[in-house]
Amino acid sequence: MARWPKPAEGSWTEHFGLGTEPISYDDSISPEFYELEREAVFQRAWLNVGRVEQLPRGGSYFTKELAVARTSVVVVRGKDGEVRAFHNVCRHRGNKLVWTDYPKEETSGFCRQFVCKYHGWRYDLDGSLSYVQQEEEFFDLDKDALGLVPVHCDVWAGFVFVNLAKEPAQGLREFLGPMVSKLESYPFEKQSERWLYRATVNSNWKIYMDAFQEFYHAPVLHAKQTPPDWSIAAQQAGFEAPAYAIDGPHRLVSTAGVHPWDLPENMLKPIEVITRSGLFGPWDAPELGYDQESAGINPARCDPWGLDSFQVFPNFVILVWGQGWYLTYHYWPTSHNTHVFEGTLYFVPAETARERVAHELAAASFKEYGLQDANTLEATQSMLESRVLERYPLNDQEVLCRHLHEVTAQWVDEYHKSLEHAGA
pLDDT tens for residues 60-69? Predict the structure, then answer.
């Protein structure tokens, strides 16, 4: 369970009951382990696929490609306002049902029915089969039994989740647990201006997650993004986050921040001064009207506070920033050593040109940070795959990295045991 502040003696790693020995990264370089993850993790966990703002009215829909599960899903808001999800496949001959120009690309839009491009079968927004071209030519066709295949779908704090299991082991709220669920009082719905970056990355999905759940790397890798005096001091003194938490399979790291508007101009880039944006977001933060303690945010009560990074197992991250915006990461596996990374920034909608530019600079800065992080990943993946070394030491600031790999192994092991029990 979550604990803070750091104990007077010992370490976060020991306090959470995790081992301190070097770890293996075989789970990130083994094609065989990846095949196990497909079933044990991604076919059983709740997966975030979007937000309700993407479904503003009845008939709004979007698709999500889930290569790790060998499927595509369509998420739709019905005429009754309910959000539902279905496997994106026509019941007639297996054609992908909803796509635009290219079948493998995600799409979104509005419709009254879903119509298959191949033979014209039509499905209502609740998934029921409503029309079959030349129905009289079929043999004993039962349209009531041929609706779209449903996917378990639920919404928490405006985030849309799906679960691909036939029967999820837990409901969504139970799966999220108290640490993540407490975050629902944060005003996500007020921040609907959306900026999205997507890239294919040549590394295992967990390797990139590791890069964003420790800040030990920040003084070195991001040295040129911060004032030189800070970079030098941080490299000499190191970085230490004031709070970590673990709740079930999920993790949290919280950091202190800075008030850039109080810094001398020689420590800032000219564009940051002009736009009043930089070093982690726009300076003129909106009034969001929430209580940090009620939302489970800034547990160390830092002033100034930087960010809280909630790592929702398996592949979803919510970063709440002290300067009044939030960011999400998704890591969608495509093979044992490739994945699709998505970074999405959310702001209270800009009302002036200055606010719009401030948001744009924050988005551009995030992209630069992301490129710097991603730049090391292929180098890491290639040398892990060399198998020159078998185990790697982690420090206490990498406690969440250790936890991610441990939890993934636990899910795979539990899945194996469930198969053996079923076979018995």
Answer: 999 999 999 9
